Amino acid sequence: MSSPGILFGIPGRGETLAESFGGIPRGPKTVLTGLEWARDLEGLRFSAQVDLVTHEVRTRCWDEAAMVVARSFGAWILVNALLEMPEPHPGTVLCVSSVLGYGSTGGVNFIAPRALRFWREAPRLARPPAREFSLLHASDDTQCPLAYAEKLHALWGGNLIVRSGGHSLGKGPGGGPGPQAR
Fold it and tell me: Do 38 and 97 touch, CB atoms closer than 8 A?
């Protein structure tokens, strides 16, 4: 179990906790902890990444005061873990600039691991994946289209916060102009 003030982060591919979440405002007693891409996730098969995230979230930050935040491909790993959990996370979950199965980068389209399976099973969840669930996504994210965040929001509920800022949303100070909640 975590103590109040835990911010548990899962960064995007090739990112560090500081790069992905260093710009998130937090109280003076809030501790940023979590997984590092290079140390913990790189080199693992996708199923092992999902298993690791499931284990870490359930053992290190499974209480109402905890906040789990994931960015980009880290958010894709997290939503797959949430889909498999037998009960909703009791705290807050925030997914930023989420890879949600399909996208493109440098003019090349990609399909993330388990994309077909995820979108087939996501409607069956029949409950929000956390006590408080939010998606923060950029309207101009060319790598991960907003339409997938809107679709997941329609299925799982929670909050969808839309900003401009492209796929780098959430990185660095500010993270783009003010939110527009939907």
Answer: no
Domain-embedded: residue 1: no
> The pTM is what?
0.89
Strand partners, 108: 105
Query: What integer is the mean pLDDT of 69-98?
Result: 95
Instruction: Compute the chain's Rg from CA coordinates.
Output: 15
- List, in order, residues 6 or more apart from 176 with CB less than 8 Å away: 138, 163, 164, 165, 169
Phi, psi (deg, nearest 5) at residue 111: -125, 120
Rounded CA gap, 147 and 100, in Å?
10
Enclosing domain of residue 134: 6-181
Q: 120, 118, 78, 112: which is closest to 95 by C-alpha? A: 78
- Three-state secondary-structure class, residue 87: coil
- Please tell me the total count of domains within the chain: 1
Q: Give the mean model confidence (pLDDT) for residues 67-90.
A: 96
Task: Tell me the CA distances in angstroms from 153 to 13, 32, 55, 162, one per residue in order.
Answer: 23, 26, 25, 12
**CA dihedral in degrees (177, 10, 150, 113; nearest 10)?**
140
Question: What CATH number should be reported for the domain holding residue 171?
Answer: 3.40.50.1820
